[in-house]
Structure formats: structure tokens, C-alpha cells
Amino acid sequence: MNQYLVSAICLLSVLRPCLAHSWIDILYATDPDTGTIRSTGYIRNYQGHIDLDETYHLLDPTAASAVCASNQQTATYSSEYPMLTARPGDNITAHYEENGHVTLDSLAPDYKPHPGYYAWLWTGEPGTELTTVGEMLEVDNVLAGPFTFDDGKCAVAEGNPFGAGRTVQPCVATFWLPYGLVSGTYSLVWAWHFPKIPACETGATLEFYTSCLDIYVDNS
Questions:
Q1: Rounded to an integer, what distance in angstroms lies between the CA atom of residue 170 and that of residue 55?
Q2: In terms of DSSP H, where are the helices of 87-182?
Q3: Is the pLDDT score of 35 beyond 70?
């Protein structure tokens, strides 16, 4: 594995193999003062809860590998699945399915789930975006995280070997937009590392999944 990627992933502790899959299904922007949902949005080119369309799997990528799926490399949205809009300071909430990686997986050496971590990444400047894995792994591009993939509540089914007592519900990710952002469109990457073997161990394959999206921030 490229030594730069090993060093970067160990430093971030966020961003291996099995048929893993997950993606961001829906996002909400909430007023931090009133708790009112300001808007609802989706990832780029969202087509619905469809594994084939929404899963983007990067297995042992190089620094030059594209960070977004081919159908998410441009800011494409529809009236049914629009871009999220928000204001500086808003609480952003996103939903994703655990798809068994929290409640069903039996992975060596302890034969329990190893759901891993995710982070939110960006350039911090409107009108610009992260395009390669190398750019994504720069520490300065972390907006929020790392967070554990398991939110402590989510489950894909009832009666799971792990996560006993949980009801069927999506995992919930939450972060805040910084105050003081200028108006414009900010591009974000949700990056999930699924480590069957810790990524810093010799011989571990780097495997992660991304969802790419945009938020129009209005500071008027």
C-alpha cells in the first residue's frame, strides 16, 4: 500500500474487506435556536435507496483515485431529491443504514462487528471541492469527526446477534456548520472506513465508501 495513504489514514483514524456498503440517504438542516427543520436534501444524483446506484466502494486506492463515484462527480440534483440549503451555524443531520455492519457481522478475530468510523470532509471554501483520495486524507480538510459508524441505536432488522433490543431505524450522523461562512455552495464528502483489520496494521487493505454532496449556505 502507498506509504502516504497508510500514514494519512492512521493519523485520521477514520478512513477493509467484506461486502460492505452504506451511503447517506437523506440530510436535514435544523435551526440551532428553535430546532426547526430548515430544509431537506440529498447526496449528488440520488436515485432512492438503491444499493447499485448509491454505493461507492474504494478498495486499496491510490492518492490519485477519485473520491466521488462517477455519477457524483458533478453537483446533479432534481426537484424530487434537491440539494440541502442551510445557514451558518445550522445543525446538519444525516441518515444512513448500518446494513448489518453493526448488528450482524461476525468478523475475526473476535467474531463481532467492526463497524469502523466516518468523517465529514471539505475544502472549507465555496465553489471548490475534494476530487482525489489524497486531498480527502489531508488532515486540514476534516470538517467533523471521526465518529463511530455505530450511533448506539441503529439496526437494520429485529432479533440481531448484536445490538439486542434495538428497533429498526437508520443510523444518525450530526455535525454543525461553522458560523461566519460566506454565502455559496460548499461541497462535502462523507467517508466511511470499514476496517476488518485495523488500517495501520501491515498488510491491511484500505477499504472505504463515500457519499458526495453539496450544501448551499445562505448568509444573507
A1: 16
A2: 133-136
A3: yes
